[in-house]
Write a structure and sequence with these properties.
By secondary structure, this protein is an alpha+beta fold. Helices cover 34% and strands 20% of the residues. The chain has a six-stranded antiparallel beta sheet with strand order 3-4-5-11-10-7. Strands 6-8-9 form a three-stranded antiparallel beta sheet.
Length: 227
């Protein structure tokens, strides 16, 4: 029931965002045609965001199941787990990755986290064929937890319909809202889990579930990972 409510809320937010985006375009006043000017290319500027103690980079798109996607070319997409998922997963012993060439669907299983004899799946933010897996993460799963947006990326996917897939993901204000909402829900479920948010200028502790019994860990992670 909780998962269904989460999905319906996500769908409603996307519709609202789409409506207001169209409205902003429609009411834009007409502008006089200016003489052509030489285009000045400015380097992309990343505005790092810390939301509820979790990093939410502005240049990524996010699935509500806490995985992220980044376009490397029109059809090649890099994928990983977000900072919220990394801190919720904690000390993962192994990550079972898909095979190269395997077709994955948006919103369905892409990899499995193993911890203390328990396993939890995570879902893909994108649809397509697995192009590459991060061998470093395969050998050292801690890398995905310690640096989820950098060296801890997990796979790349060749996605023939990446543009359409990205429309179904969260970005900007919606991504920040979703992360904040996830943090609030986690605090309600585990009042003591976020007690260390004040450390390091408000960054959440690395392993939020270190003292949680395995069955409870499975229940909580499956709820947030939508599996």
């Amino acid at each position: 029931m909780t998962v269904l409510l989460v999905i319906l809320t996500f769908a409603a937010l996307l519709l609202v965002d789409h409506f207001y985006s169209r409205k902003r375009v429609l009411v834009m006043p007409s502008l006089e045609v200016a003489p052509p000017q030489r285009e000045v290319l400015m380097p992309a500027r990343l505005q790092p965001s810390l939301v509820g103690g979790f990093q939410v980079p502005e240049n990524l798109r996010y699935h509500p199941g806490h995985t992220w996607a980044l376009n490397e070319s029109p059809n090649l997409v890099r994928v990983g787990l977000d900072d919220f998922a990394a801190k919720l997963a904690g000390k993962v012993e192994r990550i079972a990755l898909p095979q190269r060439g395997q077709w994955i669907r948006q919103g369905q299983k892409i990899w499995t986290l193993h911890r203390n004899g328990s396993a939890v799946d995570m879902v893909s933010p994108i649809e397509g064929s697995v192009a590459q897996i991060n061998e470093a993460v395969l050998q050292n799963p801690e890398l995905a937890i310690r640096d989820p947006y950098g060296e801890g990326w997990v796979v790349t996917v060749q996605s023939p319909d990446a543009k359409t897939n990205f429309r179904n993901l969260l970005g900007g204000a919606l991504a920040r809202w979703w992360t904040e909402e996830s943090g609030s829900r986690l605090q309600r479920l585990m009042p003591s889990a976020l007690g260390a948010l004040a450390q390091d200028g408000g960054v959440a502790m690395t392993d939020l579930t270190s003292h949680m019994p395995e069955q409870e860990w499975l229940k909580v992670t499956r709820e947030f990972f939508l599996t």
